[in-house]
Amino acid sequence: MQMTNDSKITDAEREVMRVIWANEPVTSRYISEVLSEKMDWKPATSKTLIGRLVEKKLVSTKAIGNKYLYSARITEEDSIRHVTENLLSQICNKKVGATIASLLSQATLSKKDVQILEELLQIKKAEAVEEVPCNCIPGQCECKTD
Question: What are the 10-residue block averages of pLDDT along the chain, 146 residues in total?
Answer without folding.
Answer: 71 97 97 95 96 97 95 96 92 94 96 97 96 91 69
